[in-house]
Every structure is written in structure tokens, then in C-alpha cells.
Amino acid sequence: MNKPSYLLALDGSIESKSAAELAWSLAKRTGASVTAQHVINIRDIWHFLRPKSAGFIGSGPYIAAFQCVVNGLREIAEALMLSYQSQVESQGIEFSTHIDEGDLVAEICKRAKDHDLLIIGRGILESKDRNVKHSLCDELANICPCPMLIITSQNADWTSLRTRVLSSNVDVHLVDSLGDFAKSLQIPLVVELEPNIAPKEASIFMDQLAALDHKQWNISQSENIEIAHNDGELIVVVPETESRSTTISKSSCLDLKNWTQSALLIWRNQRNPSANSVT
Fold this sequence. Notes:
This protein is of the alpha/beta class. It contains 8 helices and 10 strands. Helix 1 links the parallel strand 1 and strand 2 (33-40). Helix 2 runs antiparallel to helix 3. 32% of the residues are buried.
């Protein structure tokens, strides 16, 4: 069985530091390697600085300003990775570091395809100047090729992994992969079925789950399901995938900016049933 690997997206925020500490803790628990990545978002920098058309001056001063900003950000990136490496070396885990340049989402996704889990601090996802319709969280949730763990604080003392199964994403293979992830963390998986799932569909789904090799299932279906119970639960959201425009908030009624839990796990429905397995 292959060793799991985590991709850690880094910036200078406190949430990113919490994400790093949690990634190290999870790696020690699961035997995973951790790849730290910092992206210099030159795409957005150029969109901010570039002239729309020639006016009183040519493009030269704008290009010079762009190069000056990028050089400064490269120095910051090097300092960030040096500080990270000095701390991760004492953790006793396998690690690597990378500094990439380009579009933030595209560069993260390029590396994420070779990893089992993306771990990212909430601060990276709260860009305010990006000229796009949806948030960075929505973009990554729609196209990231692996599950995404969003961190708000350093707390890995989870007592359970909890997901809400909608009628549009009843997929026993997806829940099975969540069970594998929960098993790697040595915590039970709590599966809550939406009340609008037909009884026959729910019964078939429960029978399929019962046939799987997981000992710690907790399956329920009720009219009133709360979004979160306590900070000891790691909440899982499975985005709807009918179109690129579907957002996390629409799928789960969650607002990332007002999210008070220590973490949120975005688990996309992959084509390959085993693609999400990290054990």
C-alpha cells in the first residue's frame, strides 16, 4: 500500500501556521509525507499593475514595477520557506518544499493531483482583490483533484468525522473513502442522510454501507440536522458537481468567513472510487 502524501499550501498568515502544525500532527499519525508549497501569484499582480492601454506613458514603468514587486515577493517566499524548513526538520516526518509562480489556484491544483489531501489555511482563501465571480474556496472546491482540508485553528483533537449525504450525491464509494480517512485518523465516521432521500434509496444505501469493512459507522436520518455540533467533530462537505458555478455555500449552507469550527473538509466526488483514499 502506497504511503499517503499531503500537500500543504503556505503563506505568512496565522491560519497557515496552524495548517502546518496540523499537517505535521496528521503526518505523524498516518505516516504521510508533507509537501509544502508557496505560490507567488504573479497572475493577479500583473492584472493589478498592467496598463489597460497606452496613455501618457508606455508600458515600461509598469513592467519595471511588476518586476520589482515580484522580486520582493520572491525574497519573502525564500524567507518563509527557510523558516518553515527550520521548524519541520525537527518533526521527524518526510517533507519537501516548493516555491511556484503563476495563478494561485492553477499552481495548487497542479501539485494537488499527485497528493491525497490538500491542507490549506483559511487566510489563503480570503483574497479580496481577485477579479473572479466566486471565492478561491469555491474555485478549489470545484476543480481541486484531491480532498481539501481548510484550517482555521490548530486543533486535531477530533472525536469524529461527520458528513451529510444529500440525495444528489448518494455514493457508497465516496462514503467508503471517507471511512478509510476516518480510520486513518482513528475516529468514527458519522453519516447523516437528508430527510428528502426516499426511504427505499436510503435503505439500499445503508445496506451497501453495512457490507463495507468499517466497524465505526454511525448512520442516521432525521428531519432536523444541525450544521455542526461541537469543535470535536471534523465536518465534511461534498460539493454538488452539476456545474462549475455551484458553490460551497449553496451545497452546504456554510459561510467560510463565519466558520467557527477548527477545520472544514471538502471531499469531492471523484470518478475513481479509490481516488480519495489516503490510507
